[in-house]
Specification:
It is built from two helices and six strands. By secondary structure, the protein is an alpha/beta fold. The N and C termini lie far apart (36 Å). It comes from Prescottella soli.
């Protein structure tokens, strides 16, 4: 990645978000294994928005290295994240509820977000 591109923080290797994620976080539960909040993506292509989401969460959670979710076909076909970004997309964890995303930090703790379908009205 071009070193002249401003980073959102010193932890994640991608640029400052270009679109504000629609995200609601609960109190300080990051890494607790409980629902940490709700994410309402702008489109069905979650992977095109994942860097912005991670950039918004990193100040609360620390660096994120993996995202466990039941990725849809649109997201896997149109993945616009680069392999060198250090974020792995993995299948849901055992017992992980449908529609729940787990963002796993470098400390191996997870923060769970309920993913609200993009076509739902506020």
């Amino acid at each position: 990645m071009d070193p002249r591109v401003p980073r959102s923080d010193g932890f994640q290797p991608f640029p400052i978000p270009t679109r504000t994620p629609r995200l609601v976080l609960r109190g300080h539960v990051a890494g607790s294994g409980r629902v940490g909040g709700w994410w309402w993506p702008w489109t069905q292509n979650l992977t095109s928005q994942i860097h912005d989401l991670i950039s918004a969460l990193t100040p609360q959670t620390g660096p994120i290295e993996s995202v466990a979710f039941d990725w849809n076909k649109i997201s896997t076909r149109q993945r616009r994240t680069e392999d060198p970004d250090g974020v792995r997309f993995i299948a849901p964890l055992p017992g992980q509820a449908a529609g729940m995303m787990c963002l796993i930090g470098t400390d191996h703790r997870g923060t769970f977000l309920t993913v609200i379908p993009s076509n739902m009205q506020p």
